[in-house]
Amino acid sequence: MVITRRDQNERLLAYLISLAAILITLFPIVWLLGIALKSQRDAFAIPPKLVFEPIADHFLFLLDKPGFVEAFQNSVYVTALGVAIAIVIAIVAAYGIHRFKFRGKKLFGVWLLLAYMLPEFLYIIPMYALYQRIGLYDTQIGLAFVYQVHSLPFAVWLIRSFFREVPGELDDASRIDGCNHFGSLRHVYIPMAAPGIAATAILTAIWIWNELTIALSLTFGEAQTITVAVASFRGYTSINWGAMAAASIVAIVPMLMFAVFAQKYIVKGLTLGSLKG
User: Which residue among 5, 23, 65, 241 is least enclosed by CB atoms within 10 Å?
Assistant: First the structure.
């Protein structure tokens, strides 16, 4: 294969654009880390101090701040519970939508998409009033449930698209072998669409972990998440920039590591069926 000069230029341009995208993405995180490791004086020095003696005071401050460690634990619990609820229900719902014919099937699919696109402020006030009545306000379980308004339609829509890539012949063969619908779902659809299900779970976990608006409105102290804890460093008269930067790094690192570890599953899941003829 002969590589022309035009191909080389296009490849070089692609590399340069990719490099620029990486630098633009990493710059805020690197700058945030710099603020977290600098003293208040060095953090806002003009011109910026690129060479400085790093300190760990802001990270140590987080350990002594009441409620911060608990907020981190709340985020872990709410994310795990929210993802588990969404994926279990979404798998069954996606199979039912894909496998069965019923009146209004297309409208149901459109409704899922519209439900996912709803802005949070439309249902936060009604959910606040309801949660106050039934005792789910400021609870981890209540927060995990309300996150289903967004995460469940997203999960159903995505897993349904993965189930469409499963050959219908395998489903028919499982039914001939004596499997009922749940047996077919368990032995055919879930194994075949496992990468896609994993990708859906990962994307759902990232959204729940990073969500702020709902958590800020439906929690007060007991169930506050890490994003609310980060926002709490902003006071009425001042902002503790060093502590806020350190808290932001603590909030970013788990999902960053999780995304790097799960990258192959995301790529494999989102490209499921793309090579199918």
Answer: 5
